[in-house]
TrEMBL record:
Family: Belongs to the ABC transporter superfamily.
PANTHER family: ABC TRANSPORTER ATP-BINDING PROTEIN (PTHR43875:SF14), MALTODEXTRIN IMPORT ATP-BINDING PROTEIN MSMX (PTHR43875)
Protein name as annotated: Sn-glycerol-3-phosphate import ATP-binding protein UgpC
Domain ABC transporter residue range list: 4-241
Source organism: Sulfitobacter pontiacus
GO CC aspect terms: ATP-binding cassette (ABC) transporter complex, substrate-binding subunit-containing
Cross-referenced SUPFAM superfamilies: MOP-like, P-loop containing nucleoside triphosphate hydrolases
Cross-referenced SMART domains: AAA (SM00382)
A Pfam family of this chain: ABC_tran
UniProt keywords, alphabetically: ATP-binding, Cell membrane, Membrane, Nucleotide-binding, Transport
Lineage: Bacteria, Pseudomonadati, Pseudomonadota, Alphaproteobacteria, Rhodobacterales
InterPro entries associated with the record: AAA+_ATPase (IPR003593), ABC_transporter-like_ATP-bd (IPR003439), ABC_transpr_FbpC (IPR015853), ABC_transpr_MalK/UgpC-like (IPR047641), Mo/tungstate-bd_C_term_dom (IPR008995), NA-bd_OB-fold (IPR012340), OB_MalK-like (IPR040582), P-loop_NTPase (IPR027417)
Keyword Cell membrane: yes
Amino acid sequence: MAKITLDNLAHSYLPNPTSEDDFALKELNHDWVDGEAYALLGASGCGKSTLLNIISGLLHPSQGRILFNDRDVTNDPTTKRNIAQVFQFPVVYDTMTVRDNLAFPLRNRGADAAYVAQRVQQIAGMIGMEDMLNRKARGLTADAKQKISLGRGMVREDVNALLFDEPLTVIDPHMKWELRTQLKSLHHEFGHTMIYVTHDQTEALTFADKVVVMYDGRVVQMGTPQELFETPQHTFVGYFIGSPGMNVLDATVTGDKAVIGGHEIDLGHGFAPLDGKVELGVRPEFTRLATGEAGLPVTIKRIEDVGRHKIVRADFNGSEINVIAEEGAEISPDMNRIVFDPAGVNVYANSWRVAPQGA
Ligand code: ADP
Ligand code: MG
């Protein structure tokens, strides 16, 4: 197991990159703490696989270094890095049995037969394939083959890190939950450094201790699910995480007041003068409907009852503001204002969060 350090790392698939736009992965300095479970979360094309393949050695970065426990491995091939990687689609040996597929990484390293037998049995239990150990992989469903791939990724106990690149894409929804739980228990049991790539926030938030959010080739925030919820460091994090995501509104900010479309809002904290595009971000959970004169004037468009609570879609000057209301809350047609809880208001300049003065 290892701490993984990314030092000045960047990658472009072009031979002669000229601008930042040419980089699939923009310059990155980052430590992955030994033994933590991370989720790498972001939309398709933001650079997740690029980063993972650089860590495993499938891809050589155009700039910077990768260190395992402070040792430079940038020029080491995948085999020397001692990493297990599971991909989106199954990688199995069709002519081998399920048992031999699972045993392969262990036998390859010269593990003794008794240990191999016992470990394969244990992993087969985790992926629910004990009954199929003697079957050839050929002819199994994509789902079953992907479970074998997962098993092969998990079978070695001595790896530096376990990397999963959207491994549950082809798995049916019911089994997804089950396998994610198994991965979590594997982490508790062995304490491997794990990086789990996904574009699904639920998967990320339920799997990981720390979620690393990527946007357009950059890591925009790394934090606990609570930090991502309470203080999104970038408007993308606010918008991408949450259901619905954070409300983001153009504003001007002077001291401890914001003005949105001519309406003043008390921020509760003072801010230094801000440059560039200024926005307020307020999650629907910190937004409520009111009647009267205070707050932003809105019209209610739609109410969705999602069981645990209601989502109210309101219109403010042509843009949508979402409100989460308690399941039992009365929502009357004369509710014509939206009020923000100051504790839940974040201020952004050029999409990055600005901390209030004195914070
Ligand atoms: P993700 O895994 O988050 O979906 P990727 O790391 O696969 O994103 O891709 C990041 C960017 O790099 C995308 O714009 C993608 O088109 C580009 N890219 C990925 N692989 C290659 C490649 N082999 N050659 C050229 N461009 C690539
Ligand atoms: Mg990918």
